[in-house]
């Protein structure tokens, strides 16, 4: 995150400066709002990337539980539907399709790295009682 942020802060500042100098705006408020929205889109992208790096470094997708993966898939699908149906700014549509690119990389990593079947699903074990998971200790009389 630190290295991505070090790259993204100057890019957001340069984009805001470019917008100020070369794009027409109705006023300072319009420019500031446009710059902040573009920063939010950029940092939304930044928050999606660390999982890709974790999967790459571990050579495993075990750090991304199946439930979270399906949530991301469903969320990406809904975003795409609304990007086509609703009239919205181009920057928001690009942000939606950028999420698709990250999702496709997730799918590729899920295909590339094998899933360890012997690994305990931590999300499923949190639902159970911890007493049931520990062996019963018998008292010596």
TrEMBL record:
<comment type="function">
    <text>Scramblase that mediates the translocation of glucosaminylphosphatidylinositol (alpha-D-GlcN-(1-6)-(1,2-diacyl-sn-glycero-3-phospho)-1D-myo-inositol, GlcN-PI) across the endoplasmic reticulum (ER) membrane, from the cytosolic leaflet to the luminal leaflet of the ER membrane, where it participates in the biosynthesis of glycosylphosphatidylinositol (GPI). GPI is a lipid glycoconjugate involved in post-translational modification of proteins.</text>
</comment>
<keyword id="KW-0812">Transmembrane</keyword>
<feature type="transmembrane region" description="Helical">
    <location>
        <begin position="29"/>
        <end position="49"/>
    </location>
</feature>
<dbReference type="GO" id="GO:0012505">
    <property type="term" value="C:endomembrane system"/>
</dbReference>
<dbReference type="InterPro" id="IPR008429">
    <property type="entry name" value="CLPTM1"/>
</dbReference>
<keyword id="KW-0472">Membrane</keyword>
<protein>
    <recommendedName>
        <fullName>Lipid scramblase CLPTM1L</fullName>
    </recommendedName>
</protein>
<comment type="similarity">
    <text>Belongs to the CLPTM1 family.</text>
</comment>
<dbReference type="GO" id="GO:0016020">
    <property type="term" value="C:membrane"/>
</dbReference>
<keyword id="KW-1133">Transmembrane helix</keyword>
């Amino acid at each position: 995150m630190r290295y991505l942020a070090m790259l993204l802060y100057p890019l957001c500042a340069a984009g805001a400066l470019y917008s100020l100098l070369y794009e027409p705006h109705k006023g300072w408020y319009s420019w500031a709002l446009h710059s902040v929205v573009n920063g939010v889109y950029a940092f939304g992208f930044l928050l999606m990337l660390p999982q890709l790096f974790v999967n790459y470094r571990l050579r495993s997708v075990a750090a991304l539980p199946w439930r979270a993966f399906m949530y991301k898939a469903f969320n990406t699908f809904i975003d795409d539907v609304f990007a086509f149906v609703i009239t919205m700014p181009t920057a928001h549509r690009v942000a939606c399709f950028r999420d698709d690119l990250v999702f496709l990389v997730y799918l590729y990593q899920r295909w590339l790295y094998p899933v360890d079947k012997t690994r305990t699903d931590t999300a499923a074990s949190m639902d159970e009682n911890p007493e049931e998971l520990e062996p019963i200790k018998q008292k010596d009389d």
